[in-house]
Design brief:
Layout lengths: L3 H11 L16 H12 L2 H4 L2 E8 L2 E8 L17 E2 L4 H14 L10 H4 L16 H5 L26 H7 L14 H15 L3 H13 L5 E2 L13 E4 L3 E4 L10 H4 L1 E3 L1 H12 L3 E2 L2 E2 L3 H7 L19 E5 L2 E10 L2 E8 L4 E8 L9 H10 L9 H7 L1 H13 L17 H4 L1 E5 L8 H8 L4 E7 L2 E6 L5 E7 L2 E4 L5 E7 L2 E6 L8 E3 L6 H4 L2 H10 L13 H30 L4 H27 L1 H5 L4 H27 L9
Helix pairs in contact: 2-15, 4-8, 4-9, 19-20, 19-23, 20-21, 21-23
Length: 659
């Protein structure tokens, strides 16, 4: 399973450990300069088993465009940026947002209306715990309440004929984990819902909606939503290492239809040059307007989502970034082995597109993964060669060099005049990237919480110690209200209050890396460690059935049976989670898994009540020390039972109580 969203963000956060190079004065942008720079990082694509394309435009002209690697493993045909297809992942969200905003312009969609009004045509209905309706306006601002993304994450389906989910399943998976109107947060399912609503309102498929309203007006002749079978030969394929069969072609992923709007667009680099020209020209290209002037202003209106003017944030799905102190907006994307970066530098009139395929895994391993590999002797991924390692980082390294060479540094941004300072002592704690929240799967949520966090300690004297994802701690000193800069380093971090507590982000990061201070009850020793201890204790109660001093078969059945069923349910999640999460047509598996857990928890809820009701029979034949030992043991079993019941509710088995 590839949690590309979370792991990519942790990787992005870890980049801050790298020393920043001195910024040079911007140079004149030339094709020779760009290609020479790109060749240093992408030129090794064939040797690394990958592929890549880059494209740069300025003032309505293509400055540079080039492909790298072979479009198929072991072929003699190089990647052609004009015709070779690349899967751009979450960059697709920009096409989705624009398609929806076009329908709002035409009056087809009311941004304040309940989206169920439009979904009725598709027989999909959203049922969740909040009385506030889901509206298109909130979805576009990423403030609809954040849908439970882990429960219906991307499907790595390879058969285009099996991409349609039943309406009842789509409605069941659309469950908000937060109250509408809270802090804007990344939401794959929410953007998928935007496309579903737009498609239903327009009365056409999402593929046709984007084709007729964006691709055709812009002259994006090769681009398509999804990947029809007859277009597969046009797509680039990389190579990956497999222990059994050495090198083979990387698989490619198709997304379930309801998630296509969030990451399933396929393009060529040449087509993307036209899209970038339109973005640089504020929604218009060659007299064809994709967004009206008012809609364009709304599309890139970031101020309403800002917790602090110094921090990057979201517009209408599009988001701000700072790289080496250079301001841009755009989007990143990742699906399967594809990684994509789109950057618009509005002050310079320059835009950059890069899409890359890597044969190696591009997520970071959680600390737990290595320990599990040791315990179960799971063979780790093959070590990366120096070439693979360099190519793996090529996009980020090229972007860094590119902006330092061609984009002027952004001016310093002052804090808001009415900003209230937050005490340094209140900033201390553990911070977690917002992407890592929201799951109905108990073990997945546990593993997420054991993953990398950012730890902040108050050192006194307006100084903080900040540790990112297990790296060495660094000292930051206060330089402005709620802003701290790294001592002997260029990086700074800003803290901001929000309805959900304290948020933080580095000023040279992107909106994807917003972190939220974790509440006290997120600590593993309160929520994770007690669960296995309680389950082990409960399973030992099987001895009640065979030990004469503790004889009570029914009690043993309730305590041990409930604990065992709960444990089996959790282990079944590990076995079947891929199937339940990633493929349709397995509703019975999901029900069976859930039923096992519920039966176990129900037995554990009843067991203490039964023990209390039979206390006279239980202790009638015991005296002295045996009676005391039995009393303590039964009390521990009752406490363990109710603890598992409470934690089952906390983790989401009995409801979404953790949010």
């Amino acid at each position: 399973m590839k949690f590309t969203g979370i792991l990519t963000v942790f990787a992005a956060l870890s980049i801050w450990q790298m020393p920043a190079l001195a910024a040079d004065d911007p140079q004149g942008l030339t094709a020779e300069g760009v290609i020479s720079m790109a060749d240093r990082y992408f030129g090794m694509a064939t040797e690394a088993g990958g592929t890549a394309v880059i494209a740069v435009v300025k003032d309505g002209e293509v400055v540079a465009m080039k492909g790298y690697g072979l479009d198929k493993p072991r072929s003699n045909k190089p990647v052609d940026p004009s015709t070779t297809l690349y899967r751009i992942g979450s960059v697709s969200k920009l096409f989705t947002a624009m398609s929806a905003m076009q329908l709002i312009e035409k009056g087809v969609i009311d941004p304040k209306a309940d989206v169920n009004t439009y979904l009725a045509k598709t027989q999909v209905k959203i049922h969740d715990r909040f009385p506030e309706p889901v509206t298109m306006g909130d979805l576009l601002r990423l403030r609809a309440g954040r849908f439970d993304w882990t429960y219906s994450f991307y499907y790595p389906l390879f058969d285009e004929d099996n991409l349609k989910s039943p309406p009842d399943e789509i409605g069941r998976r659309l469950w908000r984990t937060g109250r509408p109107g809270d802090v804007a947060a990344y939401d794959n399912n929410g953007v998928g819902l935007i496309g579903e609503v737009a498609s239903a309102a327009a009365g056409v498929s999402f593929r046709d909606l984007v084709r007729t309203n964006i691709f055709e007006p812009l002259g994006m002749q090769h681009s398509v939503v999804g990947l029809p079978k007859d277009r597969v030969p046009e797509m680039a394929l990389c190579e990956e290492t497999n222990v059994a069969i050495a090198w083979h072609a990387c698989p490619y992923h198709l997304l379930a239809e309801q998630l296509r709007p969030s990451g399933d667009v396929t393009v060529t680099a040449q087509d993307m040059t036209r899209f970038m020209m339109m973005l640089l020209n504020k929604g218009e290209l060659n007299g064809r307007r994709i967004l009206s002037p008012d809609s364009w202003k709304e599309f890139v209106e970031f101020s309403s989502n800002k917790l602090d003017p110094r921090l990057p944030t979201w517009g209408r799905i599009i988001y701000e970034t700072f790289t080496e102190g250079r301001y841009a907006y755009g989007h990143d994307g990742g699906v399967g082995k594809f990684r994509t970066i789109l950057r618009i530098y509005p002050q310079s009139g320059i835009a950059l597109f890069m899409s890359q395929q890597v044969g190696v895994e591009w997520g970071m391993r959680l600390p737990l993964a290595n320990s599990l590999s040791d315990v179960f002797s799971i063979k780790p991924d093959p070590p990366r060669t120096a070439v693979e390692q360099t190519f793996f980082q090529a996009e980020k390294l090229f972007e860094s060099d590119f902006v330092k060479a061609y984009i002027p540094a952004a001016p310093a941004i002052a804090p808001a005049a009415d900003l209230k300072p937050i005490r340094a002592a209140d900033l201390a704690g553990r911070y977690w990237v917002q992407l890592a929240k929201g799951t109905r799967f108990i073990l997945l949520d546990m593993i997420n919480r054991l993953g990398p966090t950012t730890n902040v300690q108050d050192l006194g004297g307006n100084r903080l110690s900040i540790t990112v994802a297990g790296a060495a701690p660094k000292v930051f000193r206060g330089i402005a209200i709620n802003e701290y800069q790294e001592e002997n380093g260029p990086r700074s971090i800003v803290f901001a209050a929000s309805p959900r507590g304290i948020n933080a982000n580095f000023t040279d990061a992107s909106s994807l890396t917003y972190m939220q201070q974790l509440p006290w009850h997120y600590r593993p020793w309160l929520t994770i460690i007690p669960l296995p201890i309680a389950l082990v204790l409960l399973i030992t109660s099987v001895f009640l059935a065979v030990a004469k001093p503790l004889a009570n078969r029914r009690m043993a059945l309730l305590f041990a049976g409930g604990g065992l069923l709960t444990l089996v349910g959790l282990l079944a999640e590990l076995q079947f989670v891929l199937t339940v999460l990633y493929h349709q047509g397995h509703t019975l598996l999901a029900i069976a898994w859930r039923l096992i857990l519920h039966c176990g928890v129900l037995a554990l809820a009843i067991a203490p009540v039964y023990a209390f009701s039979t206390r006279r029979e239980l202790f009638a034949s015991s005296t002295g020390g045996a009676r005391t030992a039995k009393l303590i043991y039964i009390a521990l079993l009752c406490a363990a039972s109710w603890l598992v019941v409470v934690l089952a509710g906390y983790w989401g088995l009995l409801g979404h109580f953790s949010d």
